[in-house]
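FOLDING PROBLEM:
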Amino acid sequence: MRVALYARVSTSEQAIAGESILDQRQALERWARDHGHDVAGVYLDEGYSAHKSFKSRPQLQQLLHDVEAGKIDLIVFTKFDRWTRRAADYYKLQDILDAHHVPWTAILEDYETVTASGRFKVGIMLSVNQHEAERTSERIRFTFAEKRRRGEIISGNMPKGYKLENSKPVKDPEAEEAISAFWRSYLAGNGLKASLLAADACGLHMAVSTGSFILRNARAYSGAIQGVSCDPYITPEQAELVLATRKTRKPPSGNVYLFSGLAVCAECGGSMGAHRNTWTHKDGTEEHSVFYNCARRYRSNKRECSNSANIMEHEIESRLLAVLSDRIEEEATRLEAEISERKRQAKTDDSAKLRAKLERRKHRAWEAYLDESIELDTYKKEVEQIDAALAAIQTPEPIDEDAPRRLRSAMPEGWRGLYADLSPKRKHDFWLGVLNRIEISPDRTIRVVLKGTGPDDAFFTRHQQPDGYWIEVIKSKE
């Protein structure tokens, strides 16, 4: 069968539970190989929570597209929660799969839709989960209602300038003077940035985004937070005036930026924001350009970063298109040569034979102890001697024979021709699936980290472009 391998992990799961993309992928590839299936595609959604809509996962969307195109006979993932944790999403996904007669199976759990009994079991499991979720929701609503009745705060997140004491909001002594100065300045008509500077002069530095958040939540500073009375910074009338005179937030522009969420500053590690310039020619036609720069340099009331580089989106794209495939192939070839050399050296390495001999000796000692031919103390001494001898032997690093293939699979064959026909949104999804991040230095060096290519350190050296700039591609350390 033509099977699609799907893996997903959110950032918190990877950090806490070790649910790494690499572990899932290796388990799925081993399962497909053991069952004699052909791998039609590998779809990896890294950093995407299953609590959010499945439509936000780019690789899952590509998988569904391939299902509709008739390229897949079976979908496999390690556990059901890698697929979805939302009952509503499950049924929407299942409608698509059923329409194209594509079942799925979780290789580490007893859940699948290949058989009638499997589909029945999944239906029962979802019903139980839905019932438990509804009961949990009822308990939460009851708890919140009791807290409101007692005049207590439900959430522990307090507006800047307040803190919780005995479940009641009170002014924070450490921030009270600065927040008061902020409000005095703003109500005097000095504007947001001047008000932030007033707070800064009192020892509280806040970004523009924090100041905007305070103004949008002015009612929380007028004597009541979540319906619980507190000492105000401003009057209710002043709060309504602030909200009435604030500029309404512009609706989303609908513009798509190819490297949004990927471009980061090499100096401070902050996000490189995308900006769009549009101008109109005399004939009425419009033209636009997109560029990226450090948000901490240009979007805060203090220049918190020294990186003043502004780099055009088409520059980043053209450099990636020019060298990425060639550099990946060069490195894959180099890795193949290195693996061959290490294999040759391993055949002439006497340490491997000695290590195997000691392991056999250790096993014989264990069998002798089980047969009661030797006492426990004698067995322990023998094992200690063997372990000391093994430790003295230099263990060679394991040979990762699959590294060249994984590296080449980072960019699918013929990807340049396919890329040219993609819409801007699809191009953005493509780069999200291929790259971990793009680091931009003050000297406009572009440092690209590939996604899911292994745990090794950087391997590509800087590569000079015809325009005189540099691009550096490295392997992800995930």
